[in-house]
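Regression test case RT-17, inverse folding.

Input:
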């Protein structure tokens, strides 16, 4: 029984195109993550100290939550 090689090389420019699209996708994901963290921080900053205490946070925790989202 004969075995045939079924792998083919990618067409010219396909890898570069894929990497460019992946790069753009990574940028879009980073911007979306930054925006989510920004919205979360802004929402938490609008809460009163009593409301923050009800959910187990204090004012200093807001900056930590924003820092976790950036990492």
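Golden output:
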């Amino acid at each position: 029984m004969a075995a045939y090689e079924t792998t083919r090389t990618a067409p010219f420019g396909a890898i570069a195109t894929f990497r460019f699209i992946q790069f753009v996708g990574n940028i879009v994901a980073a911007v979306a993550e930054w925006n989510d963290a920004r919205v979360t921080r802004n929402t938490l900053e609008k809460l009163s100290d009593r409301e923050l205490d009800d959910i187990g946070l204090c004012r200093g925790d807001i900056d930590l939550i924003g820092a976790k989202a950036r990492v």
